[in-house]
């Protein structure tokens, strides 16, 4: 078969059973919303309506928080850690059993290539539940004192870029630590969270321990502001994160925020070139660039600039944009028309401000939301495409001469989530890692995740850490 023939994944569309409508998941059962209208979730690759989903209003959020409170006080809080662990292990195994179906559902609702949802997202989701299941009976070693206590009810709001993985990052540590949860998925990607609700039922998780309230921003707002929520965990834009921090100021809610980024991916002249080109491509084109830690600012040492750019463009020419359910697809659909409009607008601003735009020839599908892999050269630090998060497959390239200049440029951003360094020199990696104001620094790799590694930012990228032992601390009272 030639590389360009359509190759649907064996686990394609037919293996998912999408219902025509979904209710909210409250107190262990699916229930209709009392005061919100249903909304539609569409496949961004075809604009086909996948399902109608209930919108939770304040009364529904209240019901969910009360259910979570009851479950916390009567069942989950008092339960021995080793028993909570059994439920988490069961959930992890069910996710593995249903992994093909979940991967297809994620690719349909989000637009990401099946290769990524199948090989990255869903395996990491299961890995998070396995990892935190292992912690549930060892909390005294989690760094929150000898007798750590859960906060109570966690209100969690997540974005659309890694719908089920963000759910796992939020729910697994919260439950392991003994909290109960009300989670709001993003409006454009509710389906895997609703499949997760079914998994909670399959696992016989006590009612009320996990509640899923679907809806838009106002549902999220009602949740984080609800008096019965003890701990708020948010992942999303810096703008909404700021409004949440303001809304809960003065209350005794604990808050963690995982916000935006504008990571520098720094290439030195001694970098292993083939590996580096793959790392740059993965850094910015993985998940269509809808990645908070994407390597969206490429800093290249001047002496190797021509070679790196020539090879990068050649590699970009081989990337396939198209059907997320095709195993050959490298770049899927942009998640929504609103996000596509934002990417187009910032790219136009890049051109207007004088940067040079380049994309390989590639035919984009007629239906759906698409954007070609794009690189901007001749970018200066003042350009908006070098300062603002584009959250799409768009790379801005800058140059530097010395390591000190690379550090200065890399740190010249209001964000501080991640960075990448490409060099053969170990001493330079260590020196750079100390100088860079970024929560995660990758060396000779990029976008690598592990449930045991803490993740989180400095400055406007937010505060608190998720993942690893540090991720538990946020869910435990000292
Ligand atoms: P947001 O617009 O901030 O949305 C995130 C979530 O918050 C969604 O569920 C959203 O609902 C909800 N929301 C909106 N307004 C709210 C309010 N006033 N109160 C409470 N909740 C509210 O971000 P997005 O567009 O979904 O995601 C893109 C952004 O997230 C990017 O900036 C990206 O960098 C950031 N992000 C950061 C990380 C980490 S780990 N730092 C990870 C992923 C994404 P609706 O979806 O219905 O609007």
Written description of the protein model:
- GO terms for molecular function: oxidoreductase activity, acting on the aldehyde or oxo group of donors, NAD or NADP as acceptor.
- Residues 31-476 form the Aldehyde dehydrogenase domain.
- With 478 residues, this protein is an alpha/beta fold.
- The protein has helices at residues 58-76, 81-97, 99-110, 114-133, 163-176, 191-202, 217-225, 238-248, 273-285, 305-316, 337-352, 384-387, 403-411, 426-435, 468-473; strands spanning 21-22, 24-26, 29-31, 39-42, 49-53, 149-150, 153-157, 180-184, 210-212, 231-235, 254-258, 264-267, 297-301, 356-358, 374-377, 394-400, 418-422, 440-443, 462-463, 476-477.
- It folds into two domains: 13-259 and 458-477, Aldehyde Dehydrogenase, Chain A, domain 1 (3-Layer(aba) Sandwich), CATH 3.40.605; 264-443, Aldehyde Dehydrogenase, Chain A, domain 2 (3-Layer(aba) Sandwich), CATH 3.40.309.10.
- The chain has 15 helices and 20 strands.
- The model has no long low-confidence stretch (mean pLDDT 95).
- The site of 7-thionicotinamide-adenine-dinucleotide phosphate has 28 residues, from helix 7 and helix 8.
Overall, the morphology is globular
The CATH superfamily label of the largest domain reads Aldehyde Dehydrogenase, Chain A, domain 1
Q: What is the percentage of strand-forming residues?
A: 15-25%
Number of helices: 15
Please describe the structure with a list of short key phrases separated by commas or semicolons.
six-stranded mixed beta sheet; 2 domains; globular; 15 helices; alpha/beta; 20 strands; Aldehyde Dehydrogenase, Chain A, domain 1; seven-stranded mixed beta sheet
């Amino acid at each position: 078969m030639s590389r360009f023939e359509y190759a649907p994944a064996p686990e394609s569309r037919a293996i998912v059973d999408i219902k025509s409508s979904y209710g909210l998941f409250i107190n262990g059962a699916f229930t209709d919303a009392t005061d919100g209208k249903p909304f539609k979730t569409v496949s961004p690759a075809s604009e086909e309506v996948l399902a109608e989903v209930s919108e939770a209003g304040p009364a529904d959020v209240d019901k969910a928080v009360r259910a979570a409170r009851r479950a916390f006080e009567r069942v989950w809080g008092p339960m021995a850690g080793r028993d909570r662990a059994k439920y988490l292990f069961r959930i992890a195994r069910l996710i593995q059993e249903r992994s093909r179906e979940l991967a297809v559902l994620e690719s349909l609702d989000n637009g990401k290539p099946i290769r990524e949802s199948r090989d990255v997202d869903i395996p990491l989701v299961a890995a998070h539940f396995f990892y935190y299941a292992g912690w549930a009976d060892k909390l005294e070693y989690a760094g929150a004192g000898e007798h750590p206590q859960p906060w109570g009810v966690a209100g969690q709001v997540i974005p659309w870029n890694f719908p089920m993985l963000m759910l796992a990052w939020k729910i697994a540590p919260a439950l392991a630590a003994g909290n109960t949860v009300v989670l709001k998925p993003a409006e454009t990607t509710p389906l895997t969270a609703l499949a997760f609700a079914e998994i909670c039922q399959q696992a016989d998780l006590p009612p009320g321990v996990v509640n899923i309230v679907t809806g838009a921003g106002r549902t999220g707002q009602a949740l984080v502001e609800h008096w019965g929520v003890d701990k708020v965990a948010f992942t999303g834009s810096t703008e909404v994160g700021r409004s949440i921090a303001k809304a809960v100021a003065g209350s005794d809610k604990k808050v963690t925020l995982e916000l935006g980024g504008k990571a520098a991916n720094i290439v030195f002249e001694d970098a292993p070139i083939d590996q580096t080109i793959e790392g740059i491509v993965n850094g910015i084109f993985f998940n269509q660039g809808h990645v908070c830690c994407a390597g969206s600012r490429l800093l290249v040492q001047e002496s190797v600039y021509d070679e790196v750019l020539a090879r990068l463009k050649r590699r970009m020419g081989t990337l396939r944009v198209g059907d997320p359910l095709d195993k050959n697809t490298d770049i899927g659909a942009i998640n929504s028309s609103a996000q596509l409009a934002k990417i187009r607008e910032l790219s136009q601003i890049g051109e207007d401000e004088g940067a040079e735009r380049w994309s390989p020839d590639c035919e984009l599908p007629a239906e759906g939301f698409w954007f070609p892999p794009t690189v901007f050269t001749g970018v200066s630090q003042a350009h908006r495409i070098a300062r603002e998060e584009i959250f799409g497959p768009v790379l801005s390239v800058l140059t530097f001469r010395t390591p000190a200049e690379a550090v200065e440029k890399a740190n010249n951003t209001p964000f501080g989530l991640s960075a990448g360094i490409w060099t053969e020199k170990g001493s330079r990696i260590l020196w750079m890692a100390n100088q860079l104001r970024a929560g995660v620094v990758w060396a000779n790799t990029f976008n690598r995740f592990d449930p045991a590694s803490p993740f989180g930012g400095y400055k406007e990228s937010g505060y608190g850490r998720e993942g690893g032992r540090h991720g538990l601390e946020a869910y435990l009272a000292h």
